[in-house]
């Protein structure tokens, strides 16, 4: 019975999505050759921490890590949810941990009440601002909305962190099929410029710099200056700007840039703004950072055709599509919308995934 | 006198009488007052009830996944106890639809019933396993009931199974009504059975009456009526079937290489193909399937086949006029329809000739029999020669052998032959000892083979399959054509990436190209045609534009193909795909050709992080400093060049579908499916959306247990049920369960129970529990009476809300009702939280004020430490707490109580011990048995003891003995003199000596006065008189009563005599009647169980 349910991968890349797919399908996954050629072989501390976190939110999961740390075997249990607290290591931000959990959380036994502590914004993963303002609205496309919330209790900038967020997610029986083919026109731009343990003027400087570019496009721009003080501001100084552009059909494109030592707030703002513009130019109804989330939810939808218009797949998305085929057997049909632009129409037949973990008792 | 006329009655035209009469006439109609509510409260109640009833009629709208254009055939199961007339009905119905008489009806039979409807008939035998499986797939059940006998146990069992797995439509059919001679009895029986049937299904459920049998069939008019009912029947989608793909296999083939079977003596795992119409949802190749009675299997391949029983379309309708026979399509590969048999990818037609096996009634000549016997040979002459021991002369001791050793080198024939030859060579050396043995073996062999032959002749498989047949039309051509199509399709999807160095694919790639060209050409041709209508030379003018358009089209197509193909069927890395997408300059061939390739995934991506955001750098985004680039984006904003009206429109257009989402759930259905994937080639489409319900598919399964083929019986349905991802896993299921009220015994925790859940049938060991004040799940030893409880067991996961039914035994020998429980799945988990009560007892050995030392509860201080702070209690109800372990007697501890305890008190600690259900899961593999109804699973301990003849061990402590309780004696309270003296008066014991002097009342004398004396004497006399009188009266009454009793006795005796006479007459008549009936019945011998 178990022969086919074991999926093998090698390499440390795309670890998160594979773990997520394994938990959702219940297929065992074995990942080997994790940095086996590296000077420092094996799993990193944040990866181990992620595995720990996954073990916490599931019941009956078996995670076996080889002695050298270069191979992991995950026999997933059922997603139990409930109140869970986790301290994330300082090597990655909270976003690294929150992104896979956002995919799992709607399919748990009890509603998620997850408290994560660590770095809230960095350059590698989605900041908690973007997850709150962009990722969670994407879940609303699929009928996951009531009680979906991300509370930023404290901010923590790298390297010392000290931030805390609380993620609340309701459970669903099944997700809706999405039919999102009209990207619409961008009607407003929102942004959050936050700064902790630095001069509060920094966030205003970022806002001004960003507005200097964006003002030409649209008048409906609100960039909030969000300054955290005292206990809520974490242990390290830092500032960042996250921007999102919402269209008439509530398609959202986003970008952000975080401070690094020695960089002027204006530069950060320009970086974020230009990234937003290139993201907008990229087109589609979903931005590149959320392609995999939307594609996953499409696969999990009811057994109807789900459609979504997006830009060309990112590297992660390509591998994600392949992994989806391995785990779910679902293949997407990807066709250009029209000959003139590069946007693609992703369509697939949902698997009719039902939240088995949800209990009736 | 004759002409005398009477004055006719003239009704009153006016007055009170006329008024009364008029009123009376009006009253005969509907009296609305009769149903009007009498009070406001009653009106309210009535309105509530009406609303509730209407609400109960509503159902959650369920999307019907069955396509409307070409739905799969409706499965009609014919179910009933043995001898009720199922086969007769099946044959009658098939004859009604196909105008053919089946000689034997086995397995599913598909016929065309109308423009949009095909029907698959299947007869269900009376094995409970078959009934369960059939109940899970049947769309309509024809439930047959013997009218002359009434309902039987199977009928009720089947209805309960149906109830647990989503109730399909049921039509009752009463047969054998011709056996009831008396019209009144017939009417009464019909009414009675109808009432019961309605109670069981719903009020007004359709019940057909079928009178008798004509020419081995039911009367044509009655069958016609039934078929009309079937043809207009509408089906509601059932939840479970609407979420799972499944098929009812109507054909099964064994594709295992013969050689492999031969070498393993038939014990090897088989490759099996199953054929049938897909139902439910789309079937994907990656789906795992479960075949009830066999087990879980992976699909090796799925192939779409041509419809063997297609619906009539416009084309076939045209043809039908020419040959009426087209209408009479019937697809029944498992039964013998007009001598046509389907075999492994071939069709066999049985031509009854001289050497045909089928006709056993015709005596065969010796020659014919030899030829027929030749058909049974399943090994070559060489093998037989190698095996045989021919003696040249009757007297020669050593049989002739053929040395097969030289074969071994070149072609390994398997152990079989080698052994044989070795034996032979052994025989060479020691022939003298072996001779007799060899001889006897030889004889045995002969006998054995003879037996085998006979078995073959009589075996059930033999009837049609081994008859002499001639291959008329092999479906090889068909399948190869399919394959070719597949190749083309594959190439399409593969595009010209040409990743495989496989020749065939390369060629196919060319084919694709040609295809594309042709398509373009044909497009052009069409345009030419259009143009031609206008004016001739115009076509030349737009040539260049057309060419470029065509090129663009081609390009676009290529690109489109690229994405799906590059992602799913190329070995390019994701980076290459994502970044090199626009420029397909990276030729995959080059990459493949590179013999020495740098392991890119190993070296280059060593230190890249798994990150969502792409690294930003001002350098890469420098282009945005250019105003022109910035302006190019303006069109994407609502403030851009385009008019704002469009945006508003779009907004509206978007908001509409969201609002309409809930409303037209039904109509939305698979509409995108129809339009979305229409243009794609079949192969890719199958990859994307799987195989749609209604298609006839061939499913190939690898490594199926050989018993499935060897013991195949077409009378047992084979169902291929697709499993959802979650259902492949195992776990602990928590279900709500209720013992069936007709099941005689209670169910006990840890007794094995057979579940029919989802597609599966399996045995597991449940633990029953009940929610104890929402605090804990408390184990129950037995299921409660008339109440639901929870059960937890280990087994394959099923979605919550799936219904199930449970059985203690499936064998047909059980006389009683076999459905032991029904219920629904509530929860899936990897652990359970069931606890059972544990009482630890101890006794005090030293008591202080409110403190006591307790022993005998624990055995060590460590145990005590674990329970520190736990609450304890005496039997009398004094509560306390465990404090700390004592070091003297091991396991003793100090405890405090709310009051002083007694030495005689028993102290106990109530604890909860968590238990897990046993990890026992035993799938029922009934289809793998030669006798399919004889599956036996885990037995109960009692059953094993009974079977083994063992006595139940009796623990000495468990025997009952008379309880002897010595009466407790309490000593009298003695207060010391000294203490008494010190006590205050109130507390002093107040004990005194008994009084010795007589009181006045005791010692006074009473003397009567003379009048008093007289009065007392008089009273005494009167009393004596009265007494005497009563005594005399009683005596008299006694006598009277005696005479009366005698009279009564006499009458009773007379009545009894009369009654006896009456009974005698009646019994004689009844006896004669029953004898007559028995004589009538003797003709048809039927076995049946009493209900």
- Low-confidence residue ranges of chain A: none
The count of DSSP E runs of length 2 or more, i.e. the number of strands of chain B, is 32
The dominant shape of chain A is globular
The portion of residues forming beta strands of chain A comes to 25-35%
User: For the largest beta sheet of chain A, what order do the strands appear in spatially?
Assistant: 1-2-5-4
Category by helix and strand content of chain A: alpha+beta
Subunit arrangement of the protein: heterodimer
Q: What is the CATH homologous superfamily assignment of the domain at 74-232 in chain B?
A: P-loop containing nucleotide triphosphate hydrolases
Biggest β-sheet: strands ordered side by side in the sheet of chain B: 6-5-4-1-3-2-12
Compressed to H and E, one letter per element, the order of chain A equals: EHEHEEEEEHEHEEEEHEEEHHEHEE
The CATH topology label of the domain at 186-282 in chain A is Dihydrodipicolinate Reductase, domain 2
Strand content of chain B: 15-25%
| CATH T-level fold name of the domain at 74-232 in chain B | Rossmann fold
Radius of gyration based on Cα positions of chain B? 46 Å
Chain-averaged pLDDT of chain A: 91
How many distinct beta strands of chain A? Answer: 18
User: Which CATH class of the domain at 74-232 in chain B applies here?
Assistant: Alpha Beta
CATH fourth-tier homologous superfamily of the domain at 186-282 in chain A: RNA 3'-terminal phosphate cyclase, insert domain
Question: What report would you give on this structure?
Answer:
The complex is a heterodimer of chains A (361) and B (1091). By secondary structure, chain A is of the alpha+beta class. Among the domains of chain A are: 186-282, Dihydrodipicolinate Reductase, domain 2, CATH 3.30.360.20; 287-349, Ribosomal Protein S8, Chain: A, domain 1, CATH 3.30.1370. Chain A is built from eight helices and 18 strands. Chain A has helices at residues 15-25, 45-57, 94-104, 128-140, 201-214, 265-282, 291-300, 315-328; strands at 6-10, 28-32, 58-59, 62-65, 72-75, 78-79, 81-87, 110-118, 149-154, 163-169, 179-180, 186-196, 221-228, 238-247, 252-258, 305-310, 333-336, 344-349. In chain A, the strands form five sheets. A four-stranded mixed beta sheet of chain A has the order 1-2-5-4, covered by helices on one side. In chain A, strands 7-8-10-9 form a four-stranded mixed beta sheet, with helices on one face. Chain A has a four-stranded mixed beta sheet with strand order 11-16-18-17, covered by helices on one side. Among the domains of chain B are: 74-232, P-loop containing nucleotide triphosphate hydrolases (Rossmann fold, 3-Layer(aba) Sandwich); 352-467, no CATH class; 724-832, Elongation Factor Tu (Ef-tu), domain 3 (Beta Barrel), CATH 2.40.30.10. Chain B is 38% helix and 18% strand. A seven-stranded mixed beta sheet of chain B has the order 6-5-4-1-3-2-12, sandwiched between helices. A six-stranded antiparallel barrel of chain B has the order 7-9-16-11-10-17. At the A-B interface, helix 1, helix 3, strand 15, helix 6 and helix 8 of A face helix 19, helix 20, helix 22, helix 24 and helix 26 of B.
């Amino acid at each position: 019975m178990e022969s086919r349910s074991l999926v093998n991968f090698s390499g440390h890349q795309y670890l998160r999505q594979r773990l997520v797919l394994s938990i959702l399908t219940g297929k065992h996954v074995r990942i080997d050759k994790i940095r086996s050629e590296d000077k420092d072989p094996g799993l990193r501390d944040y990866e181990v921490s992620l595995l720990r976190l996954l073990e916490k939110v599931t019941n009956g999961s078996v995670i076996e890590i080889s002695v050298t740390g270069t191979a992991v075997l995950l026999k997933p249990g059922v997603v139990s949810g409930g109140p869970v607290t986790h301290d994330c290591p300082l090597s990655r931000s909270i976003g690294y941990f929150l992104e896979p959990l956002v995919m799992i959380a709607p399919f748990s036994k009890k509603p998620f009440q997850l408290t994560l502590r660590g770095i809230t914004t960095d350059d590698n993963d989605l900041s908690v601002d973007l997850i709150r303002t962009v990722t969670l609205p994407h879940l609303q496309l699929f009928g996951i909305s009531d009680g979906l919330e991300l509370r930023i209790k404290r901010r923590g900038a790298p390297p010392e962190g000290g931030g805390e967020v609380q993620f609340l997610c309701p459970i669903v029986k099944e997700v809706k099929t999405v039919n999102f083919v009209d990207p619409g026109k961008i009607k407003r731009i929102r942004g959050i410029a936050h700064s902790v343990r630095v001069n509060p003027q920094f966030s205003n400087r970022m806002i001004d710099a960003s507005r200097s570019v964006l003002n030409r496009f649209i008048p409906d721009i609100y960039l909030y200056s969000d300054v955290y003080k005292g206990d809520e501001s974490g242990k390290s100084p830092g500032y960042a700007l996250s921007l999102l552009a919402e269209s008439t059909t509530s398609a959202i494109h986003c970008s952000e840039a975080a401070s690094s030592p020695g960089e002027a707030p204006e530069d950060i703002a320009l970086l974020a703004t230009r990234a937003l513009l290139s993201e907008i130019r990229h087109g589609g109804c979903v931005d590149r950072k959320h392609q995999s989330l939307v594609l996953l939810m499409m696969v999990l939808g009811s057994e109807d055709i789900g459609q979504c218009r997006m830009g060309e797949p990112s590297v992660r998305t390509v591998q994600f599509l392949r992994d989806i085929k391995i785990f779910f057997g679902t293949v997407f049909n990807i066709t250009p919308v029209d000959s003139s632009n590069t946007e693609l129409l992703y369509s697939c037949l949902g698997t009719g995934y039902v939240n088995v973990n949800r209990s009736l008792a | 006198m004759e002409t005398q006329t009477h004055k006719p009655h003239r009704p009153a035209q006016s007055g009170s009488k006329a008024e009364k009469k008029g009123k009376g006439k009006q009253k005969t109609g509907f009296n609305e007052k009769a149903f009007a509510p009498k009070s406001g409260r009653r009106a309210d109640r009535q309105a509530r009830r009406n609303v509730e009833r209407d609400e109960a009629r509503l159902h959650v709208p369920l999307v019907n996944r069955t396509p409307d254009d070409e739905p799969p055939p409706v499965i009609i199961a014919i179910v009933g106890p043995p001898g009720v007339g199922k086969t007769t009905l099946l044959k009658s119905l098939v004859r009604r639809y196909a105008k053919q008489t089946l000689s034997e009806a086995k397995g599913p039979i598909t016929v065309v019933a109308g423009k949009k409807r095909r029907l698959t008939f299947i007869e269900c035998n009376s094995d409970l396993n078959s009934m369960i499986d059939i109940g899970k797939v049947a769309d309509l059940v024809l439930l047959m009931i013997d009218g002359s006998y009434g309902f039987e146990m199977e009928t009720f069992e089947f209805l309960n199974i149906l109830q647990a797995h989503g109730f399909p439509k049921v039509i009752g059919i009463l047969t054998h009504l011709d056996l009831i001679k008396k019209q009144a009895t017939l009417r009464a029986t019909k009414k009675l059975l109808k009432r019961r049937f309605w109670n069981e299904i719903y009020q007004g459920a359709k019940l057909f009456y079928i009178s008798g049998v004509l020419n081995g069939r039911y009367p044509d008019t009655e069958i016609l009526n039934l078929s009309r009912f079937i043809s207009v029947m509408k089906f509601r989608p059932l939840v479970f079937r609407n979420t799972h793909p499944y098929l009812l296999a109507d054909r099964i083939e064994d594709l295992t290489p013969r050689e492999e079977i031969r070498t393993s003596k038939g014990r090897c795992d088989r490759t099996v193909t199953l054929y049938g119409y897909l139902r439910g949802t789309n079937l994907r190749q990656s789906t795992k399937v479960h075949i009830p009675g066999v087990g879980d299997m992976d699909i090796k391949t799925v192939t779409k086949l041509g419809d063997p029983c297609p619906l009539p379309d416009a084309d076939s309708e045209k043809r039908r006029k020419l040959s009426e026979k087209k209408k009479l399509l019937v697809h029944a590969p498992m039964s013998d329809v007009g001598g046509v048999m389907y075999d492994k990818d071939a069709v066999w037609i049985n031509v009854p000739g001289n050497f045909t096996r089928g006709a056993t009634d015709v005596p065969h000549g010796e020659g014919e029999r030899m030829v027929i016997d030749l058909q049974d040979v399943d090994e070559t002459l060489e093998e037989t020669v190698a095996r045989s021991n021919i003696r040249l002369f009757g007297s020669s001791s050593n049989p002739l052998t053929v040395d097969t050793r030289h074969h071994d080198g070149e072609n390994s024939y398997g152990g079989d032959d080698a052994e044989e030859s070795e034996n032979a060579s052994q025989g060479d050396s020691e022939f003298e000892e072996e001779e007799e043995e060899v001889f006897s073996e030889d004889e045995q062999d002969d006998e054995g083979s003879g037996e085998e032959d006979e078995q073959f002749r009589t075996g059930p498989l033999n009837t049609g399959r081994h008859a002499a047949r001639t291959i008329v039309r092999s479906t090889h051509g068909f399948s190869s054509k399919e394959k070719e199509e597949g190749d083309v399709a594959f190439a399409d999807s593969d595009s010209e990436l040409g990743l495989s160095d496989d020749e065939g694919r390369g060629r196919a790639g060319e084919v694709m190209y040609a295809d594309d060209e042709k398509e373009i050409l044909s497009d052009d041709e069409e345009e030419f045609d259009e143009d031609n209508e206008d004016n001739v030379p115009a076509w030349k003018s737009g040539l260049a534009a057309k060419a470029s358009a065509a090129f663009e089209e081609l390009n676009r197509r290529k690109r489109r193909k690229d994405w799906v193909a590059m992602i799913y069927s190329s070995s390019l890395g994701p980076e290459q795909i994502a970044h090199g997408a626009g420029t397909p300059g990276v030729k995959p061939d080059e990459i493949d050709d590179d013999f020495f390739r740098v392991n890119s995934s190993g070296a280059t991506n060593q230190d890249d992080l798994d990150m969502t955001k792409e690294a930003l750098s001002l350098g890469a985004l420098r282009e945005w400093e250019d105003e022109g680039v910035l302006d190019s984006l303006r069109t994407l904003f609502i403030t851009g060049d385009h008019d704002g009206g469009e945006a508003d429109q779009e907004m509206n257009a978007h908001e509409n579908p969201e609002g309409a989402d809930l409303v037209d759930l039904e109509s939305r259905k698979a509409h995108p499916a129809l339009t979305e994937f229409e243009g794609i080639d079949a192969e890719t489409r199958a990859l994307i959306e799987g195989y749609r319900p209604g298609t006839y598919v061939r499913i190939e399964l690898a490594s199926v247990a050989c018993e499935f083929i060897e013991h195949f019986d077409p009378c047992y349905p084979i169902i291929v049920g697709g499993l959802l991802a979650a259902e492949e896993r195992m776990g602990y299921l928590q279900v709500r369960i209720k013992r069936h009220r007709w099941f005689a015994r209670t169910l006990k925790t840890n007794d094995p129970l057979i579940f029919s859940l989802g597609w599966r049938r399996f045995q597991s060991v449940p633990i029953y529990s009940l929610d104890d004040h929402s605090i804990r799940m408390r184990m129950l030893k037995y299921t409660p009476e008339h109440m639901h409880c929870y059960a937890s067991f280990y087994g394959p996961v099923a979605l919550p809300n799936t219904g199930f039914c449970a059985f203690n035994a499936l064998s047909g020998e059980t006389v009683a009702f076999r459905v032991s429980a029904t219920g629904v799945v509530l929860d899936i988990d990897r652990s359970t939280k069931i606890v059972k009560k544990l009482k630890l007892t101890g006794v005090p050995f030293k008591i202080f004020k409110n403190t006591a030392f307790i022993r005998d509860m624990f055995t060590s201080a460590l145990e005590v430490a674990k329970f520190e702070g736990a609450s304890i209690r005496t039997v009398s109800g004094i509560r306390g707490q465990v404090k700390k372990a004592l070091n003297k007697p091991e396991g003793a501890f100090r405890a405090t109580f709310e009051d002083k305890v007694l030495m005689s008190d028993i102290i106990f600690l109530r604890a909860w011990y968590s238990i897990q259900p046993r990890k026992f899961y035993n799938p029922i593999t009934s289809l793998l048995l030669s006798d399919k109804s004889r599956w036996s699973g885990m037995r109960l301990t009692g059953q094993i003891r009974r079977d083994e003849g063992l006595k139940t061990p009796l623990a000495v402590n468990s025997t009952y003995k008379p309880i002897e309780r010595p009466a407790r004696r309490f000593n009298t309270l003695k207060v010391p003199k000294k203490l008494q003296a010190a006590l205050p008066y109130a507390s002093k014991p107040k004990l005194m000596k008994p009084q010795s002097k007589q009181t006045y009342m005791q010692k006074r004398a009473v003397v009567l006065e003379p009048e008093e004396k007289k009065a007392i004497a008089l009273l005494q006399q009167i009393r004596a008189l009265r007494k005497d009188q009563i005594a005399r009266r009683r005596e008299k009454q006694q006598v009277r009563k005696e005479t009366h009793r005698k009279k009564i006795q006499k009458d009773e005796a007379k009545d009894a005599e009369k009654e006896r006479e009456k009974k005698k007459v009646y019994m004689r008549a009844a006896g004669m009647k029953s004898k007559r009936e028995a004589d009538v019945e003797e003709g048809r011998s039927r076995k049946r169980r009493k209900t």
